[in-house]
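Support reply, case 0932

Customer input (verbatim):
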Amino acid sequence: MQLTSAKSIEATSCGDCTACCRIFAIAEINKPQHVTCKHLCGSLCDIYENRPRECAEYFCGWRQGLITGVDRRPDKWGVVFHRPADTAVPSLYVYELVAGRSQDKDVQWAVAKFRKRFPDFRVVYIAPETFLENAKVSVVGADFYLKNGP
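Our regenerated output:
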């Protein structure tokens, strides 16, 4: 099953969105998860021409066309939809940029739409540890709620 469309990626641009620079761990540059990359200057990467391959090849769910609308670009929406290719179980990861945002009606509508299109996928909600200080991993139906990522 192909989720990434070359047409959808070409049609969208990151613009000044830097959500992925704030949530993903990048081992090559010792960047921890949910920490703003030290190479981010405003909305520009100061090592862009020599950035890690993982950064250069990353396309969030919005760029892949899994969700549409400029208002749903991750920096504006407060969540990043991520479909990792390297998981044993097909999954959609919903990373929160804003505390509690994954529970918003619009985000839940998009998750429901995704589930309808891809019923075999599990949904994993991920929030920074500071958002879930007293939380543990919890399972609600087929959903997983994790602090600080998988």
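We compared this against your earlier run and they match. Two observations from our side: The two ends are 23 Å apart (CA to CA). Residues 17-147 form one domain. Please reopen the case if you see a mismatch on your end.
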